[in-house]
Amino acid sequence: MTAKPTLLILDDDRWLLESMCDWLRSEEFEVHAASTVSQAKRILDQSKIGLALCDVRLETGDGMDLLRWAKKKHKQVPVIMMTGYGGPDAGAEAIAAGAFDLLTKPVIDQELLLAFNRALEQNQIAQENEQLKAQLDKRFGMENILGHDLRMARIFDTIDSVADARATVLITGENGTGKSMIARAIHQRSRRRSRPFIEVACGALPDSLLESELFGHVAGAFTGATTNKVGKFQLSDSGTLFLDEVGTASQALQVKLLRVLQELQFEPLGGTETVSVDTRVVLATNENLEARVEEGSFRQDLYYRINVIRIELPALRERRDDIPLLVEHFLQSASKEFGRTVDGFTRDAMDHLVNHAWPGNIRELENVVQRAVLLTKKPEIDVDVLPPSMMGKVHNTAMSRIPDCRSNSAVRSNLGLATNHATKPIETGLHAWNGKTLSEALEEPERQIILETLRQRNGNRNETALQLGINRTTLYKKMKKLGLEDQPLSLEVSR
């Protein structure tokens, strides 16, 4: 222990009480002595006590009365009981009432010190857990979702109204608008807050793995399934499961989702035993599910089942009045994280921030502020450290140069990649996209860029996403769309 706590000792044996107090003071403890329950209660109310030692049997009362009272009024104070009439019944009663330990008289000095240390260590762990929970509340609670916009105020009201409801919640909005944070806020405001919050990015996993991830599997369910696996629905039992990008789920998986949302039951992949759960489900998507239902790629019955409570997050460009508030919040966080002292943004820089289109929404804004804090050499951040895209300049990226190229070697050069002459050149002449939409015409160059970067990074998708300037989930979705999920990544370069 680095600091000795203040002790309270309750015992009606005056000689024993004085002797124990003298010895503990010699051990550098500050000690308060009491011979009656009422006296001990006054001391607990008036002094900052870190630990209490209490005799069970008193001539003018019962030490158990003090224990029960202390557990209600001073829960943070560990109480160790001692008795000269030890027995299993007395010990069970004391522990059931909330005592940390029960010692038998005569108490051995080292035994007492050991009990003190154990009680204090356990109490410190409990306090640290409470502090961590408070930090989580602050980080993921409503207080961290900033905004003066009227639509955000309505969203805050909706979160408060539905937090404890059993109904599913569908959060819609563009990428980067904060859907995950809203889901966490719903969880933190609910009675489930002490139970697990588990997030699954549906678009980041192939269909075969996603089903196992959600529902688990039994050994032998598929090649490589050597042991049983518990799925996320079961792991989040009595808590909250957040399914992001639910629009990417296959038709087969949609059927299983519909059943578990309706009946709260499912079978693990390859299993026959039915599992029941009490899981609150929050879902999110950046897709237009109504259009997906009309075209037949998303089940209508599932859509109606998940669209019970809908929270639609506005894009950042639609709530420009909130940008200065968000900038200040991200500025303080970045300054603290990076150990920089920055007063703020100049008026010109703030005007650029407010008037930017923000296609990446809040996530993009946070990245821009962090970048500016790292790059600025001045007390105030000026336009010189803002990204070129915010200054009306053309991005110097591979994609913007593709129409001027006759092969993918120039693209690789712009990305800092080695040239693989065995790779099919990217056709960029007008004949390459004759009759195609712009999106279709750009698929092959995009496919080659992703494939080449994967090869350069030895198949590491995290590093590939970082190199390409996109998040990992976006990379997975593009790979899935372009048929690169199972593409062999040979590292040999043809000569």
Structural account:
- By secondary structure, the chain is of the alpha/beta class.
- It folds into 4 domains: 6-133, 3-Layer(aba) Sandwich (Rossmann fold); 143-314, 3-Layer(aba) Sandwich (Rossmann fold); 317-391, Helicase, Ruva Protein, domain 3 (Orthogonal Bundle), CATH 1.10.8.60; 398-481, Arc Repressor Mutant, subunit A (Orthogonal Bundle).
- Helices cover 46% and strands 12% of the residues.
- The protein is built from 20 helices and 16 strands.
- It has helices at residues 14-26, 37-46, 63-73, 88-96, 109-140, 150-162, 179-188, 207-215, 232-235, 251-263, 289-295, 300-306, 323-338, 347-355, 361-375, 398-401, 409-415, 438-456, 461-468, 472-481; strands at 6-10, 30-34, 51-55, 57-58, 61-62, 79-83, 101-104, 169-172, 197-201, 240-244, 265-266, 275-276, 280-285, 309-312, 344-345, 380-381.
- Strands 2-1-3-6-7 form a 5-stranded parallel β-sheet, with helices on both faces. The protein has a 5-stranded parallel β-sheet with strand order 9-10-13-8-14.
- α18 packs across α19.
- The chain is extended, with a radius of gyration of 31 Å.
- The termini are far apart.
- Mean pLDDT is 81; it is low at 393-432 and 490-495.
